[in-house]
# Entry
Amino acid sequence: MKNLLTVGFLFISVFLLSNTLFVVKETERAVMLQFGELVNADIQPGLHVKIPWVNNVRKFDARIQTEDATPQRFLTLEQKALDVDSYAKWRVIDVGQFYISTRGNVTAAGSLLAQRINDGLRDQIGTRTLIEVVAGERDQLMLDLTSELNESTAADIGIEVIDVRVKRIDLPDDVRSSVYDRMITERNREAQEIRSRGDELAIGIRADADRQVVIYEAEAYRDAEQIRGQGDADATSIYAGAYSKDEEFFAFTRSLNSYRETFSSKNDVLLLDPDSDYFKYLKGGLTLQ
# Structure
């Protein structure tokens, strides 16, 4: 009987302790209720105590959650329809407000967030053109939407939106062809403008190169003429100096050079007066000073 009482006491003690002590993990956030009323809105990780059957503890995952929104159709600034598929990363930051607004239902929190994401996408896409949504300002659109959501979700739902991303943007079948044709036309126009600017720059570069060539050739010709003129002047000065030293000998050597060039070919015929001065040194000889 004594052993039975001891076992019963131990059983009751373990039962009471298991309903009195509870642990909140590092990856969890918790709130404490007393008869359904919120009495502790943010229980920190660790070992805690509660009153059995009076207090009730609700635990929630504090890690980052993913909400995959249902694809929706939105209109751009030029009234082009887009089918947008998006998702969001979020986590609980205010456990009390999260419990109050959703009763701790993660699915309800995701539905509220998805609705706000769709409303935000509708506003953001409605102020941008198709090109801006698809490529030009897509990242900025996501940043603006994330910032806009965080202005209200923390206070209303108790969650922080970490990031919002668009997985896919599709064009409806009825407008896809016309939009693609317009995009091709725009790209061709931009390409033609770039080619035109390139041709204009090329013409300017070629014209400048041609001008430089003319300038360099003119300067080279001028320098060559100056050098040639200076050479002729130097040669004339040398000849004049040599001539002034011995005029008779200079005339004699010049006549010999003339004879050599004149009679270099046996087939040449030259008709001259024998008494001509051309044969002066052949007849009379040279008198050296």
The chain has a mean pLDDT of 79. Residues 2-61 form one domain.
